[in-house]
């Protein structure tokens, strides 16, 4: 697994983090001084990040911090205004979008959804017998046995998430990007998805995901990148889940608790207790 | 009505040509219309046909072959719509509204100022299936073949781009190329079909079969097949009905398609309620 050290230097009012990695994996993506803007104001500024094969990275940050934008910039879905993103050539990439961005009324069955991923080169319009067998294998592996002819809308939240993961796996992706993969999922399903990703990572698939869920997801990951327009810090949960980095990421004081050997982040700001527990109930 | 009555019009070449063209154009519009509907561009057919009218007027003015000029104008308009949608934060409906009405307005202004470049301006607006020539039959056949080949070769990238453009692009699909090629096929479809349906009714032939098919299936490949068949039946049935009941052919073709829509609407209640439930859940 990647060993990551973090060095930080303060330039004017902006803290720039640089991640220096010493790993056994090969470099897949290197983002250097990447700035992306949709309009006048940049969404992310001077981001440096290196992803290596075998990494399992979670990008965390508050809403509007640029997590999804960074993900798209790493993949090449959007071009940076300045800086560069170098990707290893011939790298097979899978992308699992946010469930909110999917048109659930689009007429595709589970098999069609997975099959469309193989779009490069000459392909028959129909899913071949060999591909059908491969799709069945991928679906079985992800616990979606027998659902290939169902419409994607007619699945549970966890199953829907896994269909799009299956689509990424069907391309033979070496690296899979997931944008908020556990958004809207219950605790049990969230853990199932997380375990599935860990299994894939154990098999050598590089995983990069975004999440706003610090305790449910981020603390379980081997590497966390804290983002708030720029990289505030990157490293293991023990390195990163510290009050200073979290406060600079979320703009609010955070307290770190230990529970069952894991770190738990709680809001420690003056607004932490919005509704006092000792407030009298209505009518009393 | 006996068999002889039904087959009587097939003794006329103009009717045979009309049936060939209406059936092929119906199938072609049904097939291409699926992509139009699923990309929320239902009014592009309506808009493009109006825009092509503008191209027709400009071609007449500058002395270019009317059909060629209108065709090039249609392709440029379709590409302009696609380009605007990709580069500016406005929806496809708004882009269609701006570009195509501007083109139509230009056509009207030029025709009013300099006169109609030919007698076929009315045919372009209202369709003239009975004036179909053998070359029209070959044109529709050629465009249909090209559309089928394109959709066959680019089936998966087209599906991926239509369903999830951003992810398709992110994972290596040349979505710009796919969109451009689809727009060219769409413009060619509208141009080839205009002689039959006319500017005013073409939107229905693109949209109705696809909408009916969508109500009947949740599978993309089945939607394409059903829409193609419904489009072909509407064209074939509409032409025959129009002859025997002395009705305008374009309108009858659209009304047959609307009949399919009503059947699917009334018979598809279970599908609709399920869709509504899920829409609420999301």
Describe this structure in words.
- The complex is a heterodimer of chains A (284) and B (282).
- Chain A is α/β, with parallel strands linked by helices and 284 residues long.
- Chain A is 25% helix and 32% strand.
- Chain A has seven helices and 13 strands.
- Chain A has helices at 67-75, 110-115, 129-141, 157-170, 187-202, 237-240, 243-250; strands at residues 3-11, 14-22, 27-37, 42-52, 56-60, 82-87, 93-96, 175-179, 206-211, 223-228, 230-235, 254-259, 262-267.
- In chain A, the strands form four sheets. Chain A has a six-stranded mixed beta sheet with strand order 7-8-9-5-10-11, with helices on both faces. Chain A has a three-stranded antiparallel beta sheet with strand order 4-3-6, covered by helices on one side. In chain A, strands 1-2 form a two-stranded antiparallel ribbon.
- Chain B is mostly helical.
- Chain B has a single domain (14-275), classed as Orthogonal Bundle (ABC transporter involved in vitamin B12 uptake, BtuC), CATH 1.10.3470.10.
- Helix content of chain B is 82%, strand content 0%.
- Chain B has helices spanning 3-7, 13-38, 44-62, 66-87, 92-114, 121-126, 134-153, 155-163, 165-170, 175-197, 202-216, 220-244, 249-267, 269-281.
- In chain B, helix 2 packs antiparallel against helix 10 (175-197) and helix 3 (44-62) packs antiparallel against helix 11.
- At the A-B interface, strand 7 and helix 2 of A face helix 7, helix 8, helix 9, helix 12 and helix 14 of B.
Gist of the model:
The complex is a heterodimer of chains A (284) and B (282). Chain A is of the alpha/beta class.
């Amino acid at each position: 697994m990647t060993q990551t050290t973090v060095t930080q230097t303060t330039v004017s009012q902006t803290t720039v983090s640089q991640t220096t990695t010493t790993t056994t994996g090969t470099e897949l993506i290197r983002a250097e001084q990447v700035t992306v803007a949709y309009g006048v104001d940049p969404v992310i500024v001077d981001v440096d990040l290196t992803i290596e094969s075998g990494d399992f990275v979670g990008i965390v940050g508050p809403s509007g911090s640029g997590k999804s934008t960074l993900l798209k910039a790493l993949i090449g879905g959007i071009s940076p205004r300045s800086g560069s993103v170098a990707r290893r050539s011939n790298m097979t990439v899978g992308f699992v979008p946010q469930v909110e961005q999917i048109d659930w009324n689009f007429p595709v069955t589970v098999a069609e959804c997975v099959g469309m991923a193989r779009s490069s080169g000459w392909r028959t319009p129909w899913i071949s017998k060999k591909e059908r067998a491969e799709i069945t294998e991928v679906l079985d592996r992800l616990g979606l046995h027998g659902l290939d002819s169902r419409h994607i809308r007619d699945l549970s939240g966890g199953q829907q998430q896994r269909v799009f993961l299956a689509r990424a796996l069907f391309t033979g992706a070496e690296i899979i990007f997931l944008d908020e993969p556990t958004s809207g999922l219950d605790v049990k399903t969230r853990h199932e998805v997380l375990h599935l990703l860990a299994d894939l990572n154990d098999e050598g698939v590089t995983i990069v995901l975004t999440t706003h869920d610090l305790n449910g997801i981020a603390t379980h990951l081997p590497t966390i990148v804290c983002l708030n327009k720029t990289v505030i810090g990157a490293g293991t949960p023990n390195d990163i889940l510290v009050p200073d980095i979290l406060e600079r990421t979320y703009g609010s004081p955070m307290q770190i608790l230990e529970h069952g050997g894991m770190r738990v982040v709680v809001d420690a700001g003056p607004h932490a207790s919005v509704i006092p527990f000792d407030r009298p109930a209505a009518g009393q | 009505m006996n068999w002889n009555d039904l087959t009587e019009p097939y003794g006329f070449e103009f009717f045979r040509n009309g049936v060939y063209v209406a059936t092929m154009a119906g199938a072609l519009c049904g097939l291409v219309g699926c992509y139009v509907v699923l990309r929320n561009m239902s009014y592009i057919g309506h808009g493009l046909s109006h825009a092509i009218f503008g191209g027709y007027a400009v071609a007449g003015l500058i002395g270019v072959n009317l059909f060629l000029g209108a065709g090039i104008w249609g392709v440029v308009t379709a590409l302009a719509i696609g380009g605007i949608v990709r580069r500016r934060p406005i929806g496809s409906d708004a882009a269609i509204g701006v570009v195509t009405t501007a083109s139509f307005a230009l056509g009207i202004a030029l025709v009013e100022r300099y006169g109609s470049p030919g007698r076929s301006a009315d045919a372009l607006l209202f369709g003239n299936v009975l004036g179909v020539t053998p070359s029209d039959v070959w044109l529709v056949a050629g465009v249909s073949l090209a559309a089928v080949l394109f959709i066959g070769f680019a089936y998966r990238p087209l599906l991926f781009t239509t369903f999830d453009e951003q992810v398709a692009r992110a994972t290596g699909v040349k979505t710009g190329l796919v969109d451009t090629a689809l727009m060219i096929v769409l413009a060619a479809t509208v141009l080839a079909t205009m002689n039959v349906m006319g500017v005013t009714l073409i939107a229905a032939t693109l949209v109705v079969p696809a909408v009916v098919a969508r109500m009947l299936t949740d599978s993309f490949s089945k939607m394409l097949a059903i829409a193609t068949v419904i489009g072909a039946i509407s064209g074939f049935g509409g032409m025959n009905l129009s002859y025997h009941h002395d009705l305008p052919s374009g309108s009858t073709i659209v009304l047959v398609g609307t009949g399919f829509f009503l059947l699917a609407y009334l018979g598809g209640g279970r599908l609709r309620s399920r869709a509504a439930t899920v829409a609420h859940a999301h």
